[in-house]
Amino acid sequence: MDWYLKVLKNYFNFRDRARRREYWWFVLINAIITVLLGFVQDALGWSNESGEGVLTVVYGLLLIIPSIAVMVRRLHDTDRSGWWVLIGLIPIVGWFVLFIFAVFDSQPGSNRFGANPKDVAAPTSSIIS
What we know:
Elements: H1 2-9, H2 20-44, H3 54-62, H4 64-77, H5 93-103
Helix pairs in contact: 1-2, 2-3, 2-4
């Protein structure tokens, strides 16, 4: 949960670097929260026929900027420009490319986007020690 909160604290940070752990914990917790909100809105009858509901839409809108920001920081960690995030506008191929970039390991040492976050003390996850 610490990694998820770290992303939210860096809401508008498009400059630094993000470790794989930070990015993927954010993605996982975000997916879990979205599913839980979907169940709640279905139970309350707030979903339409396509399954969209007010809770998941509002949650998604609130997390657009931090989601883009953490992806940009993840790209920076692999020494790529944040502008690569725009390739995600290309369906399937762009998403696959961003997925591959997010899986790559950090560039060792410092790069043009800052120090390697693996070398800096990072929060420990409450789930994994």
